[in-house]
Amino acid sequence: MEETKYFRPSWDEYFMEVCDAISKRATCGRGRSGCVIARDNQLLVTGYVGAPAGLPHCDDVGHQFKKMLHEDGSETTHCVRTVHAEQNAICQAAKRGVSINGATLYCRMTPCRTCAMLIINCGIVRVVCQRRYHDAGDSETMLAAAGIKLEYVHDEVQEYEKQ
Question: pTM (2 decimals)?
């Protein structure tokens, strides 16, 4: 019987697997996103999508939708009840006194515009996403202008309910 050769995951694969595990704690069914911030092959902090501490979660009381009208006339729907996984990970770093300067952030899809601005300001140098966000243009432009390397595991848009 031939033994199957074991392939050890790369650091990016490893941290993305951890990101997937973290996302299982998310409390908004639209994204169920997780985030890992690592530096020098060490996990620093994690975060997942959920309502601010002590406030009701989407899974318990439903989504809080807002429509956004874009300059081109298109309209998208966003749930505004939650704090994004990237924001929660950055908050955890601040709360615990963990420097994330020079780190890599792993997440499910392209960070939104607000998350991109936070990523830039806290010194993260690289972002690895599983897939693209459907409204990623501003974020991609800002991250590139700030010199932050943005990579995708899969070059496709993340699909979810009421996109």
Answer: 0.90
